[in-house]
Amino acid sequence: MQATHRLVSDDSKSFVSIEEGELISYIKNGEELIHQKGDPGWRNSDTEMFPVIGPTEANNFIVNTERGEAVQDQHGLLRELSYNELDKTEHSVVFVKTYKKNSKVKNSKYPDKSIKELVFWPYSFEFKKRYELSNDALKIQFEIAGEKGMPFMLGYHPAFKLSGNNNEIFKFKEEQLTLQNILDVGSIAYPALGANEITLVKANGYNVLIKTQGFDNFMLWTEVPNMVCIEPISAYPYTGGKSLDSGLFMECGGVDFFEVTISMILV
């Protein structure tokens, strides 16, 4: 049976539920923010993309590094690892995933959606995910402790609940787009580059403000009108090339930090 953690804000008006490290619910004043498993659109409610973002099939699932070729499926192997709980309070909880370099990991996409049964990465790392709930927001922090110089891409992939009426809009920088704009782009996701915050504007209920540190880009994806994934990313991977360009990767500095803050706002 999966363990579910429940966080409560000081004013007892906000509640967060986390299952095996996955954000499955964020409720404020009775309004659910997060896409629910089992509803149309996506079988998850949140996940992380690491150490790569985007598809690798076109390059036979090979990612080139200074330590040779690695085998990665779409969005990386981190999601194939299990979180362990490190610490918990009424308002916060910390999880960790640990990987030893070149360890073979079973690919859950095999054999139905991939020809690669096992994936691996030639660098060791420790990946921490911390949730902290306040009266006003949910803060999610990521800490990557890895070998210096390790190449990586990082993306956070939460799914938000929508009305199903295709009437939501999205604002970032000086731009505004509709849900239909995102639907029209399809599987490659809509790029919102050079932005560290984005607002989901709804016809009814709370609007959602997402602010980030360390990512500086978003991509937005959905194929249905009842949910949308608003994904902070370190780089947008759908550049048209067969392989992931080396310029898309960051270099690990030993310990790197990233942050996402999700707020419900009334406008």
Structure description:
The protein has a single domain (4-265), classed as Beta-galactosidase, Chain A, domain 5. The protein is built from one helix and 24 strands. It has one helix spanning 179-185; strands at 4-8, 14-19, 22-28, 31-32, 46-49, 62-65, 68-71, 84-88, 92-99, 105-106, 118-119, 125-133, 137-146, 151-152, 155-161, 169-172, 175-178, 190-193, 197-201, 207-213, 217-221, 227-233, 250-251, 255-265. Strands 8-9-12-13-24-20-19-16-17 form a nine-stranded antiparallel beta sheet. Strand 2 and strand 3 form a beta hairpin.
Fold topology:
Elements: E1 4-8, E2 14-19, E3 22-28, E4 31-32, E5 46-49, E6 62-65, E7 68-71, E8 84-88, E9 92-99, E10 105-106, E11 118-119, E12 125-133, E13 137-146, E14 151-152, E15 155-161, E16 169-172, E17 175-178, H1 179-185, E18 190-193, E19 197-201, E20 207-213, E21 217-221, E22 227-233, E23 250-251, E24 255-265
Antiparallel strand pairs: 1-2, 2-3, 3-4, 5-15, 6-7, 8-9, 9-12, 10-11, 12-13, 13-24, 14-23, 15-22, 16-17, 16-19, 18-21, 19-20, 20-24, 21-22
